[in-house]
Model the fold of this input.
Amino acid sequence: MKTTDILIVGGGPAGISAAIWCQRLGLDYLLIEKAEQLGGQLMGIHNQIVDYPGQIYATGKDFNDQLIHHIHHLKCNYSVRTPIKWIDLDKQIVKLQWDETLLHYCYLIVASGTSVRKLNIPGEQEMIGRGEIYSATKDRHRFKGKKVVVVGGGDRAFEGALLLADCGADVVVVHRSKQFRAREEFRKPVLEHTRISVVEDTIISRIHDNGSQVDYVELENVKDGSMQTLAVEGIFVRIGVQPNTKFVKEYVCHDEDGYIQVDTCQRTNHPSIYAIGDVCTHPIFSSISVATSQGMIAAKHLSLQLSCRNVD
Ligand SMILES: Cc1cc2nc3c(=O)[nH]c(=O)nc-3n(C[C@H](O)[C@H](O)[C@H](O)COP(=O)(O)OP(=O)(O)OC[C@H]3O[C@@H](n4cnc5c(N)ncnc54)[C@H](O)[C@@H]3O)c2cc1C
Done:
């Protein structure tokens, strides 16, 4: 059986930062990322990143290129396209998808981030399968003069609606209640925009396609159950995110929204499990800065733990 002192699961900014610090502290570690490449959510940021101290990046990919350059320079130990086949959190053993041998770890750092919430309605999976997942920032020009629907009532929904409408799309914002979480900065311009209409107390219950792309949606009023159809050419689902905790969910305490609870050293209630980044940070505070600092804290704390073990 192979062994490692620290197994970092997830190669977004949090996991990458933990790997950099583990390397710097001379620890025995491995970072595994299930996707084709490192970067996590960074790869989906198509606008400028202006709030990470030190540099303004044109896109998340630019930021990620720098991170990858950095970890290659330091010769960090990582493996992409490496999903977990199964994990035994009691015995601290993991079986990786493409590796025949088992891996024993002393400590697990969960850095698995969040995924966007889906509607989970008929027609959605087919839409995703056709690649009809759009970014309002990157793809807005293709919807000029077309009708699109944006689902959600938070910042991302409202900001997206504004980008699309300012670019000439006719936008229908569909929201399940009358309460919008979006901040005032977005709310007023959306509600007053001539190209945006807002449909409250309503959900999308089905997506229909014409064989090659989205054609129309069925809308259901959650108050009176009335139905209507709406012809659209693009759907932007912006109903928030959920933490990726499936593989540890039963073992660690989490809050009511599923975010892993940690102490100031990034420890969970389980003695061998730490968590860092968006998986343990509520969206209001989630950011690259928080994720990278938590990576550092976990690695430094583990360095102390492991040095105590070596002294014993
Ligand atoms: C559109 C958008 C714009 C943003 N703009 C900004 C901004 O301007 N400034 C800012 O500070 N923040 C911004 N953010 C937020 C920022 O990207 C996140 O806070 C940050 O990426 C969190 O890093 P993370 O490593 O915790 O998680 P993630 O970036 O989500 O990375 C988690 C990684 O774990 C991997 N993973 C999940 N499960 C497993 C598993 N079982 N096995 C192996 N790997 C797994 C995933 O594939 C992913 O690569 C933005 C986010 C988005 C979506």
Summary: The longest helix spans residues 288-311. The mean pLDDT is 95. The two ends are 24 Å apart (CA to CA). The pocket of flavin-adenine dinucleotide is lined by residues 9-15, 32-35, 40-42, 44-45, 49, 51-52, 83-84, 111-114, 244, 247, 277-278, 286-289, 291 (CB under 6 Å).
